[in-house]
Write a structure and sequence with these properties.
The chain is α/β, with parallel strands linked by helices. The protein is built from nine helices and ten strands. Helix 6 links the parallel strand 4 and strand 5. The protein starts with 7 loop residues before the first helix and ends in a 32-residue tail after the last strand. One of its GO terms (molecular function) is phosphatase activity.
Length: 360
């Protein structure tokens, strides 16, 4: 397959996006991950009930048998009450943000080191033994997704947790696989929504010149998980990745806002569908956390954190279009000197901004 012709918008390094009329905030006081004292690097969501703090809630008072209910049952009741008692322009949702398990690109970054990875290897589709263009999970990555699977089952059995009302997943292979291993074959509670994740373009990883950010065509994704819905307008070829320009954090945050706007206030029952699963990536989850005003919290591969988000819609405001610049990133055409920490090419090879590979 040939690399797509670059569109003028991309070559001009500018992406256009709709500015949101929804304001997002994180409601703190419910989860360990919201507190500055919690160390993300050692945080194990399976050891601490997804981080849900042990406490009482205002809504407990109206419950007849509060003492017989689990923490997650009472928390769900509290979220329902927040939605019931708020204006129709306010919506609360609990986003279960899950990072994919380890992929071949993660293994390769560790194997080559950050400098050689960023300057050269990440621009290749793989090496002679591994492929990381739209990387698949390693065996370790599959195991991490199965840890999430087992933990969800334990939470269903012991905490009678309300399972997600909606599932969303990034179109990259590692997130599709992770969502599949996590949620397929769970023994769901009675009345639970079916696991049928909607594949959404804008939940993908931050788009760099790395080939791991280059997705497969729609038909490949459909063949991998034929029963899963793919959002309307999803293009056959990846029209965002070009191997030359990369999304900046600012551009990514505009994109994350756009995709959140597609999750909140979607239907009359949107308030009822308050538990939402999003299987995505470290960079994209960081961006979502910035947009919802959450503290910085880096997820380890395979980790999942819930976050309670309040969305407030300004029905009178007009949506405006903003443009956000993308940027070029230089890289080497041969592996850089491995002793350096920055992208320094061997003297024979000047850094370039043209793609290393043009075939998928
Ligand atoms: C809440 O209490 C349970 C049972 O004592 C414990 O397993 C869990 O880790 C506690 N949660 C937090 C966030 O401390
Ligand atoms: C290719 O990269 C993988 C990491 O993704 C590494 O385990 C493997 O040893 C590399 N192969 C060669 C031939 O260097
Ligand atoms: C999806 O998950 C099921 C259950 O773990 C597994 O048997 C199947 O191989 C997975 N499919 C893909 C395409 O990874």
């Amino acid at each position: 397959m040939k690399l797509l012709a670059l569109t003028p918008a991309l070559m001009g390094l500018v992406a256009f996006a709709q500015a949101s009329t929804i304001t997002y905030t994180t409601v703190t006081g419910f989860f360990l991950q919201d507190e500055t004292a919690t160390d993300a690097s050692t945080f194990d969501y399976t050891a601490v009930n997804f981080g849900l703090l042990n406490r009482t809630y205002p809504a407990d008072q109206k419950l007849k048998h509060a003492k017989e209910l689990t923490q997650w049952e009472r928390f769900y009741n509290q979220v329902e009450q927040l939605n019931d008692e708020s204006h129709s322009d306010i919506e609360y949702k609990v986003l279960f943000l899950g990072r994919h398990g380890e992929g071949w690109h993660n293994a390769a970054q560790t194997y080559y080191g950050d400098a050689a990875w960023n300057c050269y290897w990440a621009e290749e589709n793989g090496n002679s033994t591994a492929t990381w263009m739209d990387a698949e999970l390693t065996d370790n990555g599959v195991d991490q997704a199965l840890v999430a699977h087992n933990f969800w089952q334990k939470e269903i059995d012991e905490q009678r947790i309300h399972t997600p009302d909606n599932y969303f997943v990034s179109p990259l292979t590692r997130t599709l696989q992770t969502a599949n291993y996590t949620f397929t074959d769970l023994k769901f509670p009675k009345g639970a929504a079916k696991f049928s994740p909607l594949i959404k373009e804008l939940f993908r990883e931050g788009i760099s010149i790395h080939t791991c950010d280059h997705r497969h065509p729609r038909s490949y994704i459909h063949d991998l998980f034929p029963e899963w819905p793919i959002e309307k307008g999803f293009s056959e070829e990846d029209e965002l990745w070009n191997g030359v320009t990369a999304e900046t954090s600012a551009a990514q945050d505009v994109r994350s806002t756009t995709v959140l706007d597609e999750v909140f206030f979607t239907s009359a029952s949107s308030k009822k569908d308050s538990f939402v699963s999003v299987t995505s990536h470290s960079g994209e989850i960081s961006s979502i956390l910035r947009v919802v005003g959450h503290r910085t919290f880096s997820l380890n591969t395979g980790a999942v954190i819930p976050v309670l988000v309040k969305a407030e819609r300004d029905a009178k405001a007009k949506a405006t279009t903003t443009s956000v610049a993308w940027t070029t990133s230089a890289h080497c055409t041969v592996p850089p000197l491995t002793s350096v920490t920055a992208c320094v090419c061997p003297s024979s090879a000047v850094p370039v901004t043209t793609p290393l590979v043009t075939d998928v």
